[in-house]
User: What shape does this take?
Amino acid sequence: MSEINTVVDAHLVVDAYLAVWNRTDATSRREMVEDLWAEDGGYTDPLVTATGWEKIDQVIAHAQAQFTGMRFVRGAVFDAHHNIARFTWELVPTAGAEPLVVGFDVVALNADGRIQSVFGFLDKVPA
Amino acid sequence: MSEINTVVDAHLVVDAYLAVWNRTDATSRREMVEDLWAEDGGYTDPLVTATGWEKIDQVIAHAQAQFTGMRFVRGAVFDAHHNIARFTWELVPTAGAEPLVVGFDVVALNADGRIQSVFGFLDKVPA
Assistant: This one.
């Protein structure tokens, strides 16, 4: 496993990760998934687990259909070392609004700097 | 990846994991490491990254030497789904004392129910 060279690099990975969740154009979303994840990369959250670009892209498309028009934005927590980072994210109806969902993810990068695994948890879910 | 069958199973993994950190007898500590981790399993925290039983055991032995007489105990956070769990732990000088260190770990199990990876972060470090 390569190390994240700087905390700035890890911030860029997290920004790119959230950008994928906000990219609703199917073609460019899939391209972003392939740029960001290893081909055999994984994604697991409390509701779903997926391996590989196709299934990960389907998970993201499904979430976008469920929360149409909402945005995934950075949350308060960010911490990175070696090849891993932990961070929170928020799903917000509009900028600055109270988040509908707050998530907590750990991402692990492979030697190429691509996401090998996302381990997702939920800190706040809709009532 | 197999799923954790019940939340009880995940609690048992976390209990066994903390028990290793508290086991100072070198022979039985190593046996516990081999029982708990996959042979190619990994451990990463902000200070160190290790792969395989030998190196993981060395990391634990080093921490024990650094914090002689202290105990690793469960913290307030615990959450598990699929094959992963997140939890906090505390390093305490004596039972019930203010923790010297508070850590936050995510563990991912392999198909045999052994730890494939530990992704460790620190929520509180000594001043």
